[in-house]
TrEMBL record:
Transmembrane segments: none annotated. InterPro entries: FAD-bd, FAD/NAD-bd_sf, FAD_aromatic-hydroxylase. This is 2-polyprenyl-6-methoxyphenol hydroxylase-like FAD-dependent oxidoreductase. Gene3D superfamilies: D-Amino Acid Oxidase, subunit A, domain 2, FAD/NAD(P)-binding domain. It comes from Amycolatopsis viridis. It comes from the Bacteria.
Length: 389
């Protein structure tokens, strides 16, 4: 039942859903607007139950081999002197560059039809299926449609209404770009703050390049989320007058980088992730924002559960979609609690920065981080889904 399934988006959520649907015997098609899976992004955590998911996909060893191997985080002052340092070595949970994870997922996903360079334009549901209009290709008919098309999901807009009804602005904007690795300490994340602003450098142990990132506090700004030149102007305006640390070197490189990635620290909150034969997975359904550090984890676990519930219900979406939501929502709500992370990374005042640095120097914090890492590995095991009758 419902074997032909369209997935919009070839990010972590879309590729993982496609992998598990194909493995369970469905016939997924993935349509991705970009010419191929998008390579960009910083390090992302594969943690707790997400480790189970990638292990069951047979890629945990390859993820560990490609892991970023970041061992410390430090906060620096305007003259590049470390004012606090946190040791993060010895984490059992791998952090991997987003682009490397996407490439690995694509590599192991078999039995899937890919359509790159196209996107969903319109959806019409009826009792037997969904007719999908594409931006370029001819209309096609599918049994089910899954929107894995990210924070600014078109599938969500078509099936659930305008973006403004579901997306909450988190008070900040962020950008990632490639950077000169020689500017950063090996296997270290370096961060520099001004009130409401943060510039950082992520230097993984497995890459010749490093990633620069910029975060700034702001009320909502009206801009086209697909206009990269406009994004660059916004980041330039926010950091143009900053003379401290290496901000101007990083900014100049970022503004010339075609992989520049910018968005709001927004969250998606929806009462239901499904409407008839259409459902959502990943950032489209529940974006917790990069400040959560949980985008990859939520997408991997959610995709596994969605495909699993479909096979367990023999493809009956009326049973599978509510079960998928019930099984995953608690984790989503937990990961959407990002307030402390934002206050730690981007304090709003000089006093806030000083307090953060003082706390980061406390041995107590290191002990608490070790306890948290230990607790994280004790997440409940995910169910093994088998075909229902
Ligand atoms: C280029 C990039 C870089 C990122 N970098 C980071 C990072 O450094 N740190 C972090 O925490 N998070 C990052 N994210 C977000 C992170 O990937 C997600 O939070 C998480 O992995 C869940 O991913 P997702 O598959 O739900 O959505 P996404 O990763 O956003 O993937 C959605 C995909 O859908 C495609 N798409 C969009 N609209 C359509 C359409 N109408 N039709 C077809 N395809 C469409 C997009 O091109 C994209 O490939 C990044 C996302 C992208 C796209």
């Amino acid at each position: 039942m419902n074997a032909q399934i369209l997935i919009a988006g070839a990010g972590i959520g879309g590729l993982t859903t496609a992998y598990w649907l194909a493995r369970h015997g469905f016939r997924p098609t993935v349509v991705e607007r970009a010419p191929g899976p998008r390579p960009g992004g910083n390090g992302v955590d594969v943690r707790e139950q997400a480790i189970d998911v990638v292990d069951r996909m047979g890629i945990l060893t390859r993820i560990r081999a490609a892991a970023a191997d970041v061992r410390s985080m430090k906060f620096v002052d305007a003259r590049n002197r470390a004012v606090a340092r946190l040791d993060v070595a010895g984490a059992t949970e791998p952090e991997i560059m987003r682009g490397d994870l996407v490439a690995l997922l694509r590599d192991v996903t078999e039995g899937v039809e890919y359509v790159f360079g196209d996107g969903v334009r319109d959806l019409t549901q009826d009792a037997d299926g969904v007719t999908v209009a594409f931006e370029h290709g001819p209309d096609r008919r599918f049994d089910l449609v899954i929107g894995a098309d990210g924070l600014h999901s078109t599938v969500r807009r078509l099936a659930f209404g305008p973006e403004a009804d579901h997306v909450t602005h988190g008070g900040h904007y962020f950008a990632f770009a490639n950077a000169d690795a020689s500017l950063g300490e090996d296997r270290c994340v370096t961060m520099f703050n001004r009130p409401g602003h943060m510039a950082g450098l992520y230097r993984s142990g497995n890459h010749l390049q490093a990633k620069a990132y910029f975060i700034f506090r702001s009320a909502p700004i009206a801009y086209d989320h697909r206009d990269v030149a406009a994004h660059k102007r916004l980041v330039h305006a926010a950091f143009a007058h900053e003379t401290g640390w290496r901000v101007q070197e990083l900014l100049a490189a970022a503004l010339g980088d075609p992989d520049f990635y910018f968005d709001a620290v927004s969250q998606v909150r929806m009462d239901s992730w499904s409407a008839g034969r259409v459902t959502l997975v990943g950032d489209a359904a529940w974006c917790a924002s990069p400040a959560s550090g949980a985008g990859a984890e939520l997408a991997l676990v959610g995709a596994y559960r969605l495909a699993g519930e479909l096979v367990a219900a023999s493809g009956d979406h009326r049973i599978a979609f509510p079960r998928y939501q019930d099984s995953h929502r608690a984790l989503v709500l937990k990961r959407q609690q990002i307030g402390p992370n934002v206050r730690l990374m981007v304090p709003g005042t000089r006093t806030g920065i000083a307090v953060r640095n003082a706390v980061a120097r406390l041995p107590l914090l290191r002990a608490a981080a070790a306890v948290e890492r230990r607790y994280r590995t004790q997440a409940p095991t995910l169910p093994e889904y088998t075909p229902g009758v």
